[in-house]
Design brief:
By secondary structure, the chain is of the alpha/beta class. Helix content is 36%, strand content 20%. The chain has 13 helices and 19 strands. Helix 1 packs across helix 5 and helix 8 packs parallel to helix 9. The longest helix is centred in the last third of the chain and has 23 residues. 39% of the residues are buried. It binds 5'-deoxyadenosine and iron/sulfur cluster.
Length: 476
């Protein structure tokens, strides 16, 4: 036991954090009394689904300690940015918005600003914040997010910027609160970190080494979610196909899926991201026979040129990727395939780019996220010479986007006239007489309905395809 402040502070997690949640609660209540109203917060998420899930954990803690959510960042007493650093423009966005927050804080001195997530794992970023953004109250990284309550308590006790960044961790803390954004669906982390070191990617440096959660903990979490009304889960990991390899009792991702499938009341299972090099025949077999695994696979190709793939350290060739796609399409003919593509990786020639275009034409993706290569300091690709000129990249990017869009409009429309199950997710933003549902293959459909449909899985007749989404109606 640690007796720093005269009390017995638990050493083990999650007990320690429950202790700090109680402590932070008192500070928040005291402050609320001083200003005569509840304290409010806004958590803004940048980046991927992993970050979105982390933000739910932040919100869970904030609500437990007495903060109330405020949609408008400018009005909130505590603003948290959960940052992304996968591409340089993500960092620029954070600095820009942080500057604006600084102005607001000048007229609202009790306001607190917290920064966390991937960008904070970069030492240059923290140096810059320490030097030029002194008004930030709390900075922490990706490995100690579970310590949020403790860090908030520390901030209330000192009047200084609190910084706590860990280089890496092997710890996974279970059972802390989290507040879901949607009542009926949830992300579930199955692993953290990445061991792949694709040469352009900063993720292994900011998210650390690959760690899988225990299958028992995952199953228990999903069972609890289902008991709480969740019908669809998205299993999250940087490379779900290598799940379980380093556990004390190794288990494959396909085996985990089979266990999850048995959970009664769970209707749909999604997962991302799959690395092509680790996608097993066993997984394809399980997908083929599953009633619950959605007919959607996100399979980032990154480039169609075997030469560039090697420089990217992706560990597959164009031919191997295409063979894998064929295997999947043969086993699960109605599967929807999506991908990530990087344009302008160092040394990419017109021929290399045409290989990428060729893969796009052969695979015919339902959709593809296309990115302009962004140089990330510290990654092997940043040190490669022959970086591609910006105007050449722009031209290739435009050509690729056009191809991707025209193919995806064609691919998407093949379901016109069929009836499919959709999970209704929300009332339509633009037209309140419509609701929006998601098909198993991840395509959206808009149909007449009201808020009472949200969370239900209904049969929808797909009347018309509008490029990337459908309009339809409930089929009775
Ligand atoms: N530049 C551009 N895109 C990148 N991605 C990862 N790192 C970079 C980078 N340095 C893309 C990859 C990955 C997706 C999440 O982000 O396509 O699959
Ligand atoms: Fe980055 Fe490659 Fe790991 Fe994906 S698999 S997070 S692209 S290093």
């Amino acid at each position: 036991m640690n007796t720093l402040d005269g009390t017995n502070i638990p050493v083990h997690e999650p007990e320690r954090q429950f202790y700090y949640i109680e402590k932070a609660k008192k500070y928040v209540a005291k402050k609320a009394k001083e200003i005569g109203r509840d304290l409010t917060f806004t958590v803004t998420t940048f980046g991927c689904q992993m970050n979105a899930r982390d933000s739910e954990k932040l919100v869970g803690i904030l609500e437990q300690i007495g903060y109330v959510e405020e949609a408008d960042e400018e009005k909130a007493d505590f603003v948290i940015y959960n940052t992304c650093t996968v591409r340089e423009n993500a960092n620029q966005r954070v600095y820009g918005r942080l500057g604006q927050l600084g102005h607001i804080k000048k007229s609202k001195p009790h306001m607190m600003i917290g920064l966390c997530g991937c960008m904070m794992q970069e030492p240059e970023v923290v140096e810059k914040l320490k030097k030029s953004y002194r008004f930030v109250d709390l900075i922490f990284g990706t490995h100690n997010i579970y310590k949020f309550a403790e860090l908030i308590a520390t901030r209330f006790e000192s009047n200084r910027m609190v910084i706590d960044i860990w280089k890496d961790t092997d710890q996974i803390v279970e059972d802390l609160p989290s507040e879901r954004k949607f009542a009926f669906k949830s992300g579930v982390n199955i692993m953290f970190g990445c061991n792949n070191f694709c040469s352009y990617c900063i993720v292994p440096y900011v998210r650390g080494r690959e760690r899988s959660r225990n299958p028992k903990d995952i199953l228990r979490e999903i069972e609890k979610l289902v008991a709480d009304g969740v019908v669809e889960i998205m299993l999250l990991g940087q490379n779900v196909n290598s799940y379980g390899k380093n556990l004390e009792h190794p288990i494959t991702f396909a085996q985990l899926l089979q266990e999850i499938e048995k959970i009664e009341g769970l209707e749909r299972i999604r997962f991302m991201t799959s690395h092509p090099k680790d996608l097993s025949d066993e997984l394809i077999e399980v997908m083929k026979h599953s009633d619950k695994i959605c007919k959607h696979l996100h399979l980032p190709v990154q480039s169609g040129s075997s030469r560039i793939l090697e420089k990217m350290n992706r560990r597959y060739t164009k031919e191997q990727y295409l063979e894998l796609v064929n295997k999947i399409k043969t086993a699960v003919p109605d599967i929807s395939l999506t991908t990530d593509i990087i344009v302008g990786f160092p040394g990419e020639t017109e021929e290399d780019f045409l290989e990428t275009m060729d893969v796009v034409k052969q695979v015919r993706y339902d959709s593809a996220f296309t990115f302009i290569y962004s140089k990330r300091t510290g990654t092997p690709a940043a040190a490669m010479d022959d970086q591609v000129p910006a105007d050449v990249i722009k031209d290739r990017f435009d050509r690729l986007l056009k191809e991707v869009q025209s193919i995806s409009a064609e691919v998407c429309s093949v379901h016109t006239g069929t009836t499919q199950k959709a999970l209704i997710e929300s009332v339509n933003d633009h037209d309140a007489s419509l609701v929006t549902g998601r098909l198993s293959n991840n395509i959206l459909v808009h149909l007449p309905g009201d808020a009472s449909y949200i969370g239900q899985i209904v049969d929808v007749h797909l009347k018309e395809c509008h490029g990337f989404y459908y309009t339809g109606e409930i089929s009775r």
